[in-house]
Protein 1
Amino acid sequence: MGLEVLYSLRGFFGTFGAGQLFLLRIIVNMPYALARPRLIIRQVYVTGVQSLVVIMLAGFFVGMVLALQAHLTLSRFGAEDTIGMVAALGLVRELGPVVTALLFAGRAGTALSSEIGLMRATDQLSGMEMMAVDPIKRVVVPRFLGGVIAMPILAVIFSAMGIFGAWLEGVIILGVDEGAFWSQMQAQVDLRDDVMSGVIKSFFFGIAASLLAVFEGYNCVPTAEGVGRATTRGVVHTSLTVLVLNFMLTAWLLGGN
Amino acid sequence: MQQTRAVELGTGLFVFMGILALFFLTTRVTSFDAYEGGEGYELTARFDQVGSLKTRSPVSIAGVQIGRVTAVEFDNERLEAVVTMRIASRYDQIPSDSDASILTQGILGGQYVGLQPGGAEDYFADGDEILFTQSAVVLEQLISKYLFSQGGGE
């Protein structure tokens, strides 16, 4: 029993260290990828544009449900005018970055892991090495950078769609005064403390989610089963990492106040 | 080639949408105040009690916001709170004998500094101190005053 715990701890820290070394390799090889922006643009398209519909729909409905829930509670105090503020703060600070990162892990992260994993399983990565092409430079770094660039953009679009959803539900359906909806929001939401802290968060989530996805894919067992496992592990690890990281980043960003 | 163009176009549109969304968040969702860029002038005021006044709380005159609180500090020697506020430069005709009081916005709202214009000929300038101030009303003190006045009446 004790030995088992020790083994799993060793496994955890081993993976943790390997991930850090992998990140270091990515950073060192970044200039090569930056010199070929086409590769990065292609990956921003694959991770960002192709996740756009999912993100927009999710944001819209999250915003609507936030407005509905806030209205239910706040109308008891006669404060339903503040639903715009409640929805906007919730979206911009927390739900935008976090839900986007979770959806990103499911939509784009799995695609990254399985794509790179399949390249590993079908010996395409070793083939590249054979032709003196470093797969880290050619395959991993552009995918990593594409994810890092796409994530904050997706999170901002998610929040904007959410506020649109909250407006539709609150003002159009529930009949909250439109002027009060926007003015309460503008009075309480701060550009630096709320909007920018959300963007900073999603940037870090982008690094974590992209790194874990490419890392799991690159280091998978080169079999059909191995690729499947790597993909699953990528989503699970990314989701947990995002939630833990969210707590730490929130504590750090709120610590300044 | 055709596909590369589509990818580039899609990515460009995507980034543009992101910028548009950020623009929406900054202009529509937050109060992106013009006077926060550092222009304007600073005033200070001393209060016995500031209540829950915080930095970034609004400063208003006749109900219109003209600036924000930039610092709330405690003066060790005079044992008073010193509130520093930045007023937008276009509101430069506030009489120098105006008084400042700490008020509350509605029942659930936060506290803000309200200025009441005086009748002096000259105006506040950068670095001036507002001499006439009225502290925040603390609910506990109000209740105890009320209770004492009830007791004294009998």
Protein 2
Amino acid sequence: MGIKWDEFFITGDPLILGSQIAILLTMIGAVAGITYLKKWKYLWTEWLTTVDHKKIGIMYIISAVLMFFRGGMDGLLMKAQTSRPEMEFLNSQHYNEIFTTHGVIMILFMAMPFLIGLMNVVIPLQIGARDVAFPQLNALSFWLFFSGAMLFNISFVIGGSPDAGWTSYFPLAGKEFSPGIGNNYYAVALQIAGIGTLMTGINFIVTILKMRTKGMTLMKMPMFTWTTFVTSILIVAAFPIFTVALALMTFDRLYGTHFFTVSGGGMDMLWANLFWLWGHPEVYIVALPAFGIFSEVIATFSRKSLFGYKSMVFSILGIALLSMVVWVHHFYTMGSGPAVNSFFSITTMAIAIPTGVKMFNWLFTMRKGRIKITSAMLWALAFVPCFVIGGVTGVMLAMGAADYQYHNTLFLVAHFHYVLIPGVVFAVFAGLYYWWPKMFGFMLNEKLGKWHFWLFVIGFNVTFMPMFFLGLNGAVRRAYTYSAESGFAPLFMLSAIGSIVLAAGFAVFCYNIYWSIRYADRNISSDPWDARTLEWSTASPVQFYNFAKLPEVKSLDPFWHMKKKNEGLTLHDSEIEEIHMPSNSWLPIYMGVIFGIAGFLLVFEWHIAAAVAGIGIFAGLIIRSFDYNEGFHVSKEEIHRIENAWRKTEGEVHDHVS
Amino acid sequence: MKKMLLSLTAILPMLILSGCNMVVFEPQGPVARSITELINWSLIWMLLVVVVVFGLFGYIVWKYREKPENKDYEPPEEHGSTLLEIIWTGIPILIVIALTIPTVKTLYALEEAPKGYEEKEPITIHVTSADWKWIFSYPEEGIETVNYVNIPEDRPVLFKMTSASTMQSFWVPALGGQKYTMPKMETELYLVADNPGSYEGQNTNFNGRGYADMKFEVLAQTQEDFDQWVEDVKDTAPKLTEKEYVGLLKPTHLGRLTYSNTHLEWVNHADPDSKAYTNPELYRGHGYQGKTFEEDDNYKNEKPNVIEGHGEDKGHDDSEENHGGDHHGH
């Protein structure tokens, strides 16, 4: 096959060599550790082959935190490089690879899996279901995401990272101008992960439509469920576009077609259109669930139901609809004429209207409440002012004519970080602090949580606020260096200092997880926040079948009203029935591995080997179609035993810890 | 919370004050000025939104926070208020309308020569962007420059823009907004400079390793100086040959170059059927740095009036340029 080993392993860069050694040592350490502790069987049966939505959710979250670390390191390297003018820490090529992987990883392998992880853990519980509609498909979704993420990540040590920006505009991303294999990784790894995401979307639409417990009408669904539902619809609407675009990109790069390259009669702007036709809804695919999380957290810690529930639902639907008709605002400057630009300016600005409605509804949810400032609530509170800054600068960018001055500058970069970090990262932190006891049966440390919060939020503002001014002063995005005469130096330095504070916040977060696993109090109630939705009506951590008896819903915030009226909280022995649950399966992880291998071979354009590996994919599909395993039943005795362990003797839910 | 609010209120005035020395807020021509006016208009409204939301937010969080005294307070059941919700749907709609009208007007205005300059005959300059340089052709004057463009003041300049390679974006923030340059396509941009002066222009659309240094100088001169310059160029600058031009298009950085003819004689990259002159082999491989990155002559904003010429200029030695750097994997 003519392997060029000097191209295969990236050599000659001390940073990358260090990473290679670190990766190798980590892998050896992990394998040795698991072997020493004799945990292989546990790992295989409890995690790798699981179809339990909660465990899949936790695996998503762990992967997302790891990817956050990787993407964050990329961010720090970029900040170090631009901290001073004419800095020679990274060269241009290395910088290009780093901002490309930073963007892809943060959006697709951090934000999305983090949110999908929380959805996985929470949604079936919130709607009173025992699992998602297709548990094995759910596991497959995870393993495909994981496979794509790993494939994308090895690019920086094997073969070279993609370097054409996370948007990978053609013709730059084409074979002609990026002849290395880096952008093959982009095309193939994102395709594999994208298929997983698409299946998640389908799975959650069906789950939410078909598996709601008795009495939970659409307009009684918790807000996080609503946002997940609408997000899933957006995924199903938008991801096929990306699938097609990436497939065309793969053909262009691997087989010499010219869909996007002008030299052969293709259109480079076709890529930009397809990319943003997916890419803009993608922004809302990550933002909407985050809005749902804030709604839950703000309502719970204000001890009030969500203000203007109906208008919240309609505003989500409005945002989702509008998000599909604004994509051209990413290239107002392509010269498409004032009529087109005016249309997209108006649709884009219109998104501010439903978003504003949500903002005021959140504020009025807190009004007359009793606001308990926990770590989770702090994130939700900080979201409001930070996101408003992101939102108003978004409106400024939406104005086509004004955008001629902002386009591709750091003003834009500052804007989308001000939207995505408060809108997504703050949300996943809020969600994690909030649902952590539900997942693991203990809380994260509140004091460390507050350190995490303040460092992160201050660091975030110090990092990204200067970039607005840099952009207005003419600093463009993606430039690896700038001259001393430009006058950018002080603000770039300030921004770099901010990023260190930000990183310190993340470090405290990691330490908090470690500390809490080791020392946190395990003796907490199943409902430690005095919360409002159904997930808190069952044990913490949740038993594998979720609910011994499926709850009945009569109103919004059902668990809150169950507690107020003191009904529906007791489980009588006579009500216990056998529960049918799906069996574990090795197929999803097998598919993940085989997709990863086939993808890897395709990246290196070893077509015959890739085709052989592709047979493995079809083998998996065929095996699955002959899989007649119907799952298993949980006996009454076992349910009785498990429920007794956390309920009071009369079968009531614990309300306080003795 | 309070701490954060305080720090934010400290930042806001800084924001407004520091606005005074940012290039976008110091327009040097009518095109840039119309955009700046639009930006200022939007800033007023956005500041209003920020003040209202921050104020309301601070007030509510402070007033209704949990204190030892209100531990027993049980908040009322409250589901919404149609009136309030109509108010905060209606006001954003009004704000969006207030922003939409000038936006659309400006969008249309930017497509033409700016008001007050219609009767002045525009000068047409063709812009061809390549990796990683800017080529300016003056078809009427029959001259061509690389990495700098001289224009007469107070006269509309119509830039007809295209790219010889990747997609790029032409931006002179002091004079006006930007537009993409794309191969086999043509975009148009009007700019006017009010006063003589030197302004920085650059590519804003990422296009590979040499992107950060893809800058050029716009020198606005009085009409007499400009005419004089054109005459000088015609007298002294060498002719560009097609062979030399193909060398120019390779992915390199060049200093300033000047020619007494234009490449439009044999190729206009905006033409959909034009020949492509790309050099894929020069993009290949990781770690390829190209010696042009060390060149110090590619951009000189400080000495605006110096016209550097000719073939023997530094940084124009093709044979050395294009083989500079170490190609991995050959």
